[in-house]
Design a protein that fits this description.
heterodimer, A: about 110 residues, mainly beta, 6-stranded mixed sheet, about 45% strand, B: about 120 residues, 7-stranded mixed sheet, 4-stranded antiparallel sheet, about 0% helix, about 50% strand
Amino acid sequence: QSALTQPASVSGSPGQSITISCTGTSSDIGGHNYVSWYQQHPGKAPKLMIYEVSNRPSGVSYRFSGSKSGNTASLTISGLQAEDEADYYCNSYTSSSTPWVFGGGTKLTVL
Amino acid sequence: QVQVVESGGGVVQPGGSRRLSCVTPGITSEYYSMHWVRQAPGKGLEWVAFIRNDGNDKYYADSVRGRFTSSRDNSKTVVYLQMDSLRVEDTALYYCAKDQNWGFGAWGQGTMVTVSS
């Protein structure tokens, strides 16, 4: 069982917006601003999409945005495109004995 | 864009050992703190280990603490993950990733470790 909870799947049509949630505790998401999000296409390495809750690395589309409220972080993808279809993982630094934890992953389907 | 290349994977028997290597071609890795992250076949990502750029701080997941050890060589161009007392459940694709603002920036393509008799 993952330390962070994500929905197993989400879907949306091209052009729509979707939001993926990532729920943790006050020891991880709620207690630190070190939440990051990763996109992984089949057979490929993960790619950093968001770091420190809401910052986009250079080269990542403005359509990707991150936020946090309490113990829950969110990734929003606006203007869905077919190429966005992938697995998405959240990660947070934690105060526990395992200092970084991932969510279980969310499969995004673009209809 | 920083490149990351892992090597050292293979098939090992339960209870055996394996050492993985991670290099950043063209860049002196001493400037980077590095993570190891693994992904079992068909499963999600699991953070495994971290080593700071100066090698003085190391952290491990509960699932591998006491069995896995991260290190870097004196020239600090290579980061290692020594894996001992391997278990079937350690079977996974092992990624090395550069630390970026407490997340994982550049990733390699991974090296597969299979623990099987």
